[in-house]
Amino acid sequence: MLKKLDLFFIFLKLGLTSFGGPVAHIGFFREEFVQRRQWFSEEQYADKVALCQLIPGPASSQVGLLIGYERGGYLGAFFAWLGFTLPSALLLGTLGVSLIHWSEIIPHSVFVLLKAIALAVVLHAVIGMGKTFCTGLLERSMMLSTTALMLFVSAPWLAPLAIMLAAGVFLLGSKKEVTTQHIPSNISWNQSVFWLLLFIIGLVGLPLAANLFPALTALSDFYRSGALVFGGGHVVLPLLADSFVDTDRMQKEVFLAGYAAAQAVPGPLFTFASYIGGSVYGNVAGALIATLAIFAPAVFILFGVYPIWKYIQHRPEVRLAVSGANAAVVGLLFSALLSMSFTTIDSVLVGSVFIAAYALISAFKWPPWVLVLGAIPLGYLTDWLATG
User: Fold this and answer.
1) What tens digit of pLDDT does each residue of 9-45 get?
2) Residue 66 and residue 74: Cα distance in Å, rounded?
3) Burial category of 52 from C-beta neighbours within 10 Å (exposed 0-12, middle 13-18, buried 19 and up)
4) Taking the model in full, what pTM does it have?
5) Which residues contact 137 (CB under 8 A, 6 or more apart)?
6) What are phi and psi of 244, to 5 degrees?
7) What is the DSSP letter of 314?
């Protein structure tokens, strides 16, 4: 039990310091669990990332769930999710109930510097994973093709499609030798069917129940939004807007203010639902219900698919496909790094913080949370100098 509680505090630290969105979170997790704690190899970690990019739900939170599960079973997964989700859910739920805007409390310059540090973490992840998974010409081609595709085409389904395409191309075109690894003799079908049934029941049953009991409508909307998102929390914006703004249950200005706050706080962007629940229901219970409802489908489908994945992932042909998928994952990270850089690095100060943060992480092995703590007073100082 103590080891499982350790997972909670490890992920709580990440939940307090992991700024920058889903891609940055993947970089923060890699720093913590591959580089620092060495719980997983680069290959084991990349496999988790690839799987979570292929299924619906917030990819970074699902990666955290898998890390917790492998270290402490279902209870470990719960503690990992709770630690990572709690800080942003509390902040955004409180903002939703009180409708206090984040900019009244924390200056914009703090968030800009925090994003610069998140960029440095992503850069370190891209370089480290690139050295491991993009060693040949075909892998590098898959990585660069995925990067270009993600930069020039915008669609919520594109990330899983790019991974599957890279996996297929690598499976058909690679001459790489893959040794046969131990393949589990059986699969936990009962476990897989149980979780997948829960996913389907929620997706189909909740809307039907909402027709009979209108009080369940919001719960159904949160669940549906969580079930139809691929790759990261940004995609959930139009789904939640359709459910709550277009139906006049929430004013557009209040919705956008909450989304801006969700971009600014650490942890998963899915906790934007905490803000909406707190605002629509007007109490903490509403924020809690919304949070649980939007994360539930991601948990159900992850643990439904994972036993199947564990069964097939060691087969030689699957390993070949995964090699292509992992190269595509590096491309996804690289494209996100470039996109974030264009919008974040807009001054000499931010650029200097980015370069210094990368140097401290890569050369001096500073943990990112130390840099986050340092950026907060620097941001306040920058704002004070600019206004005073």
Assistant:
1) 999 999 999 988 888 999 999 999 999 999 999 999 9
2) 9
3) buried
4) 0.88
5) none
6) -115, -30
7) T
CA 185 to each of CA 182, 203, 204, 261, 312: distance values in angstroms, whole numbers, following the listed order: 9, 32, 33, 48, 10
Question: What residues contact residue 204 under an 8 Å CB cut-off, 6+ apart?
Answer: none
Do residues 215 and 284 lie in contact, with contact meaning Cβ atoms separated by under 8 Å? no
Question: Domain residue spans in the chain?
Answer: 2-183+315-387, 189-302
Six-digit token string for 107? 């200056």
Read off the pLDDT of residues 136-175 as tens digits, 9 standing for 90 and up: 999 999 999 999 999 998 776 788 889 899 999 998 988 7
Rounded to whole angstroms, the Cα distance separating 201 from 273 reads: 21
Cβ-proximal residues to 267 (8 Å cutoff; 6+ apart), any chain: 15, 16, 18, 25, 84, 85, 87, 88, 89
Please check the confidence at residue 215 and state whether its pLDDT lies above 60.
yes
Residue 222's contacts (CB-CB under 8 Å, 6 or more residues apart) are 240, 243, 273, 276, 277, 289, 290, 293, 294
- Beta carbons within 10 angstroms of residue 247's beta carbon: 12
CB 217 within 8 A of CB 293: no
Q: How confident is the model at residue 179 (pLDDT cuts 50, 70, 90)?
A: low
Return the SS3 of 230: strand
Can you read off the two tokens belonging to residue 380?
Answer: 């306040």
Neighbour-count burial of 147, counting CB atoms closer than 10 A to its CB (0-12 exposed, 13-18 middle, 19+ buried): buried
Phi, psi of 282 (to 5 degrees): 80, 15
Q: What per-residue confidence (pLDDT) applies to 102?
A: 55
CA 218 to CA 280: how far, in whole Å?
9
Separation between Cα atoms, residue 78 and residue 116, nearest integer Å = 30
Res 207: pLDDT = 93
Check residue 5 and give its pLDDT.
87
